[in-house]
Amino acid sequence: MHEIIENYDLDRISIATLGSHSALQILHGAKLEGFTTVLIVERRRLWFYNQFRHLIDHTLVVDSWREVVSKNIMNRLRSMNSILIPHGSFVEYVGLDRAESMEIPMFGLRGLLRIEADQRRKMKFLADAGIKIPKEYSINNVVPPVIVKFPGAKGGKGYFIANSIEDVKKGIERAIKQGIIQNPDEALIQEYIVGVPAYYHFFYSPVLDRLELLGADIRYESNVDGLKRLPAEISKYINPSFVVVGNIPLVLRESLLPKIMDYGLKFVRKSKEDLPPGIIGPFCLESIIREDCEIIVFEFSGRIVAGTNIYVMGSPYSWLYWDEPMSTGRRIAREIRMAIDRGILDLILT
Amino acid sequence: MHEIIENYDLDRISIATLGSHSALQILHGAKLEGFTTVLIVERRRLWFYNQFRHLIDHTLVVDSWREVVSKNIMNRLRSMNSILIPHGSFVEYVGLDRAESMEIPMFGLRGLLRIEADQRRKMKFLADAGIKIPKEYSINNVVPPVIVKFPGAKGGKGYFIANSIEDVKKGIERAIKQGIIQNPDEALIQEYIVGVPAYYHFFYSPVLDRLELLGADIRYESNVDGLKRLPAEISKYINPSFVVVGNIPLVLRESLLPKIMDYGLKFVRKSKEDLPPGIIGPFCLESIIREDCEIIVFEFSGRIVAGTNIYVMGSPYSWLYWDEPMSTGRRIAREIRMAIDRGILDLILT
Amino acid sequence: MHEIIENYDLDRISIATLGSHSALQILHGAKLEGFTTVLIVERRRLWFYNQFRHLIDHTLVVDSWREVVSKNIMNRLRSMNSILIPHGSFVEYVGLDRAESMEIPMFGLRGLLRIEADQRRKMKFLADAGIKIPKEYSINNVVPPVIVKFPGAKGGKGYFIANSIEDVKKGIERAIKQGIIQNPDEALIQEYIVGVPAYYHFFYSPVLDRLELLGADIRYESNVDGLKRLPAEISKYINPSFVVVGNIPLVLRESLLPKIMDYGLKFVRKSKEDLPPGIIGPFCLESIIREDCEIIVFEFSGRIVAGTNIYVMGSPYSWLYWDEPMSTGRRIAREIRMAIDRGILDLILT
After folding, report:
1. In which region does residue A156 sit, left (phi positive, over 0), alpha (psi from -120 to 50) or beta (all else)?
2. Which of A168, A221, A289 would you mutate first to test chain C, the one with the most C CBs within 10 A?
3. CB contact under 8 A, B231 and C196
4. Which end of chain A is more exposed for a tag (fewer CB within 10 A), N or C?
């Protein structure tokens, strides 16, 4: 990777991403920081991104996401001195193996991809960092209520909440029948934390050696966030589902921020220990806040999350640091700009 | 109308609206674009709008909304070279016939008012445009759950959700007794779409020939959004109601935006076909997003909606286009400004 | 107090607050208005506020909040020409008696602290101002549903909703057993208003003699806002709790704003009558909006509330007045700046 970067023309760096998830925010931020932008986009979505052509200097059209790693695309990206910004849909689209071995500089910690892809390693990473996580139960040792997750499933598909061992077993059998999992061991049975969900958007800057809290959000999920508007005698016949379709802004009680920041710093520290050089740029901790104000983290994302799309003009937190409209997308571009200016670009690319 | 506009002094155009709904946003936007502003306001609310007198150059006080169309008000508006900005409460206050025949240039598609006033024509317009809508049932052909609406009723009054044919019939009888409707045929029985509500704020610019997505929101409704905070054993005795009292910001999952933009473009196209010159400026599609990410539109508004009041400083979407605080109210004024500068003002007025 | 202010160097005024609640917002706003900032902070939280050291010129570290009123801290604050900004956690941390007698100029109406600390005087203040409040019931005269509150309890602790006299009595007995109250008379039994919560952030400017509406929010409460995401057969076993952990942005239907503004003005008027010079700066009215659009206020706060933390970059309402990113924290600093410039600083300090 160092070799590729050494051959780059630092005056003509471009920022590239895939057309989905938080691409508009990333492109917008890159333009504000004066970069050339490149969008890799599926043919069927090209018309949509063309509505925002003022944000996009070059489009690389693919017929399927697998093409992203083709020699042709890689060559073109390198010829444009591109830095790739992976986002939350990146591994899903490209595939883990391909993502890991792409011969293009990425902004972010590539080594984290494999941990993220494995629900159990992920939880262990958090616990080892010193962050509180839900208890995990084996199927013979369930203390209800629990939430049962299927690590392979996309977007919360098939997740269910159960209040008894029988319901857990029934639900897992159903998931096997539906082909969501092959055998019961794949199911992750977690303590159901009673409280409210909250997601924290962090940005670790290697250039400034500073962890910034850039925002927080609540997810808006279909159909569960609609069911609560239905009379109980109707909603009881409908199974709740947890497909994220949007995000709602949130600020936290200030007395919770030290705990949140502490978790963020622990995450940074652990990533430096286990996966040097450690996390670079955006990551997200996904939590439940209990009524006793304890925060339990049930998931993380090692890159930009869709909740940051709320804050294209900056968040209540980013304004505390920057006093200009600083989205996470723009913050990424700013970090790259600062690294170029200081001659330390290779510090923030993997 | 062309005659009126021809007699206008284009250097002294003023922007006028009615004191309610999104008036503050419209006036604020007009001032930012350098226009003189005119507020038509009921006497009883004058004191309130006087709190914002820095946004208002002239007030025309009426004792009741019916006066809005009086010769006196019309003459004064024309003498101030006024363009009227109709908003979501406009037809409600002024009445459909009067609104259609007002002899003052309006920003927006006047011809759409009559379609909007008729729930069934409205749904047909959407369906014919190629936008997915809920199924409509006749009373003898109900597949529950359904939502029953009374087109004449204001703000969702009397709407109810039913899980059986008996409940539909009982509810309609109750509505007749309460005088909400006269006969059962007035009731609109729609498939109840299970999912989450989401409202999209569009702006079609004839000057730029561009459809902009300017924001999205969720409505905050009394009492339904409070009931869900009550224990079931108490809430079950209370009938949910759906009176909109506010709006909450929302961003959408980026992979939903192509579908949303497609619906917006279809709406523009259909309006151009059926009602040339077609939609001008703001409109809103009101939808449910199902757990399979399908979007079903159950309502539209052909003008500025109150949800845009969230984004006086711009929205996560408007910043993608404008990089300055661009509310829908300001966007209207900007469109008028651009049309004046290009000598094509009559293109955007009806 | 006048004496202290007379000895202050008006060219070197600093703004001081306690490290919690809305301190970051207050410090950020003070810096934007060119003030030196002082943070009084518990030793255990110093590391956290050091993450924001660009906002803080001086830190005064205490081992416990009681030290805030120590001679040492008071002397140091006065030597830095400090104006103290009390926030929602101020009395909770410092204690009512100490807060009232602190020998340091405060921005805000010190005389209101004692009324705020007494739930019954508080409700009487609102009612006497002409603001609608919930009915209060004696234990022998309950019309359910009711909400039962324990004035001494922090953050809604122990509050419960009851649908029968028996449940009220049982709940109060339980609270006595748990030591939340000593005798039944301490319990405040209020009519449970069915509707949706909404909180309004006001700012009364003595300098401009103007009441500004600076924002609105909804509280995000653990666990009640999570319970609604659980299937009824699970949530029914869990007692709802109402611990505020965050805030969500809200705009109001514009036709509700005259009522809200009227309440705000009534609050200002009453405070001037009862406690001259009357309210100074931020206050908050906390309400339920019923389905008939009537607004019932069940609580107020006489200083900056945490909900304003949403609007560090300004709110949809503050932009109507200021056209620059004007948080409540910055608005406080701006008021102090204007008062200094006009030589009327003593008008806004108590």
Report:
1. left
2. A289
3. no
4. N
Residue C120, classed as helix, strand or coil, is helix
Coil, helix or strand at residue C309: helix
Handedness of CA A224, A228, A230, A231 (dihedral sign): positive
> Does position A158 have pLDDT exceeding 90, yes or no?
no
CB count within 10 Å of CB C252 equals 23
A249 three-state secondary structure: strand
Give pLDDT tens digits for A294-324. Answer: 999 999 999 999 999 999 999 999 999 999 9
State mean pLDDT over C266-283: 98
Distance of CA C270 to the CA centre of its chain: 18
Confidence of residue C231 (pLDDT cuts 50, 70, 90): confident
pLDDT tens sequence across A183-222: 998 899 999 999 999 999 999 999 999 999 999 999 999 9
Q: Which residues of A touch B317 (CB under 8 A)?
A: 312
Q: How close does chain A come to B291, measured CA to CA in Å?
A: 5
Express each pLDDT in A92-114 by its tens digit.
899 999 999 999 999 999 999 99
Using CA atoms, how far residue B91 sits from B56, B85, B99, B331, C146, in Å, is 22, 12, 6, 22, 40
For residue A1, is pLDDT > 90?
no
- What is the ipTM metric for this complex? 0.95
> Which of B207, B172, B208 is closest to B187 using CA atoms?
B172
CA angle in degrees (0–180, nearest 5) for B160-B163-B167: 65
Q: What is the pLDDT of residue A20?
A: 96
Instruction: Tell me if B198 and A246 make a contact (CB, 8 A cut-off).
Output: yes
Chain B residues within 8 A of C240 when measuring between CB atoms? 229, 231
Cβ atoms of residues B193 and B286 within 8 Å: no
Are A234 and A321 within 8 A, CB to CB? no
Nearest CB partner across the interface for C23, out of A254, A256, A313: A254
Which residue segments constitute the domains of chain A, with CATH numbers given?
2-106 (3.40.50.20), 116-131+194-323 (3.30.470.20), 136-191 (3.30.1490)
CB contact under 8 A, C245 and A293: yes
Q: Is C262 exposed, middle or buried (0-12, 13-18, 19+ CB in 10 A)?
A: middle
Contact C258 B227 (CB under 8 A): no
Query: At a CB cut-off of 8 Å and minimum separation 6, what does A53 contact?
Result: none
What span, in angstroms and rounded, lies between the C-alpha atoms of B274 and B204?
16
Main-chain dihedrals φ then ψ at residue A218, nearest 5 degrees: -120, 140
